[in-house]
Amino acid sequence: MPDTLPELLSALVSIDSVNPSLVPGAAGEAALAHWVAGWLRERGIEAVLDEAAPGRLSVIATVRGSGGGRSLLLCAHLDTVGTDHMPDALEPRIQDGRLYGRGAYDMKGGLAACLLALQGAQGAGLRGDVILAAVADEEYASLGVQSVLGRITADAAIVTEPTSLELCVAHKGFTWHEITTFGRAAHGSRPDLGTDAIAHMGRVLGQLEAYGHDLGSRAPHPLLGHASVHASLIQGGQELSSYPECCTLQVERRTLPGETAGEIEREWTALLSPLASDPAFRAEHRTTLVREPFGVPVDAPIVQTLRGQATLILNQTPTLTGMSFWMDSAFLAAAGISTVVFGPHGAGAHSAEEWVDLESVGQCRAVLAATLRAFCA
Ligand SMILES: [Zn+2]
């Protein structure tokens, strides 16, 4: 089994781990999880598999400290998005310092950096444990990290999603909502009997647009800008010649650190209640999913340690940054683990051409190795 970074990353990319919840019938994480566990065990590192759902495997590996030190969790996801329109997705190719292939950037590069850093923790004489969670299903429902957090904890965590070697200390969360307006079905020639649920949804959409403007006018988060809301899917009506009985709208609200699901519920109530002054208007709202935003204080020990070690290794202080998209880091933070996101450089997440910069993966590995030595000493 490979020891050098390019060989290790090539092996990881060549193993199909497309998320089967995104792409029905896809391979899933099992083969890659077994391979990663085997790679670790071959190096004498304790590794166990965690099955969040049938066939949906994560790997938990631990290099135990001698006791009394702080523990650090490295976290990377095993799954990738699909490989449509990407003929050589699983045939990694190295050119001009870049490794091309599905998952190279999101995020097998970060996973390779974690594996090599964990290997480096062996024999380093650390007092604290270093733990790796290589998790399933980040690209869909985060089953892997949620299941793994039932078995492990740590004093701090580093998620190695790609950040171009910047230090990500915040990302947005999101909530999903379903609004249904209820009309009354009737023959299209009988306005005296019918109530148009789709037209009533038009009133909701008008309110939604005003809600979006309101969010854009609030004080911005220093790293993430503004919260936002948008309509995503709409469905309504029975047939062309009838008044529609109901209309359903699905909405996504992107949230900032500090915004709670309870506050957002109250915003929806305030948005819909003026419409209810019309007795013919009837609507229901429900929140269908909450994914918390993420933010870690800049003076948290893990932020300070990683920033200090990265400054030494990269010869410059990494920029503190925020990411617009959601990551597993929010689950780690919600479990009480002080978390940062730091990973390599590249491009093409979820695109037809995906690559990671190999030098930056090596730098990421070096920063992780130095950080765990400093943090778990
Ligand atoms: Zn990712």
Question: How would you explain this protein's 3D organization?
Answer:
There is one protein chain. The protein has 377 residues and is an alpha+beta fold. The chain has two domains: 5-171 and 293-375, Zn peptidases (Aminopeptidase, 3-Layer(aba) Sandwich); 173-291, Alpha-Beta Plaits (2-Layer Sandwich), CATH 3.30.70.360. The chain is built from nine helices and 19 strands. The protein has helices spanning 5-14, 30-42, 104-121, 143-148, 197-217, 261-272, 301-314, 329-334, 358-375; strands at residues 46-53, 56-63, 72-77, 93-95, 98-100, 130-135, 156-159, 167-171, 173-182, 186-187, 228-236, 242-243, 246-255, 283-291, 294-295, 320-323, 338-341, 346-347, 355-357. Strand 4 (93-95) and strand 5 form a beta hairpin. It is elongated and about 80 Å long. The model has no long low-confidence stretch (mean pLDDT 97).
SSE topology:
Layout: H1 5-14, H2 30-42, E1 46-53, E2 56-63, E3 72-77, E4 93-95, E5 98-100, H3 104-121, E6 130-135, H4 143-148, E7 156-159, E8 167-171, E9 173-182, E10 186-187, H5 197-217, E11 228-236, E12 242-243, E13 246-255, H6 261-272, E14 283-291, E15 294-295, H7 301-314, E16 320-323, H8 329-334, E17 338-341, E18 346-347, E19 355-357, H9 358-375
Helix pairs in contact: 1-3, 3-9, 7-9
The protein binds zinc ion.
Residues 77, 106-107, 138, 161 line the site of zinc ion (ZN).
Protein name: Acetylornithine deacetylase
Pfam families: M20_dimer, Peptidase_M20
Cofactor: Zn(2+)
